[in-house]
Amino acid sequence: MLARFIVRAIFAAVGLWVASRLAPGIGFDSAGSLIFAAVLLGIVNAFVRPVVFVLTLPLTVLTLGLFLLVVNAAMIGLVSLFVHGFHVNGLGPGIMAAIITGVASWIGGMVIGDAKR
User: Considering the entire predicted model, what is its pTM?
Assistant: First the structure.
């Protein structure tokens, strides 16, 4: 289980790195801050995101799921508040980072497979 978390964190770090290259307004100062941001993003997504998801469920249904991009951007923004050296400057770059990191995490999930198998 720890190995799966580490692999997912690596894919999240790659996603954040790609987001920093493609989206203006996303940046990091060092590889250590990038890795710490990826690990903290995994923890935030495990504990904070489900609560926010439930609280915003009516708005998510109303927007046919598009509000989840804002929720994911908010989680990345929350991580940037706690990790010195990782910067997200606004909602637009946060949404771009959420899309890119989501794709990288999806690819990572496909690579490591389902835990129930």
Answer: 0.91
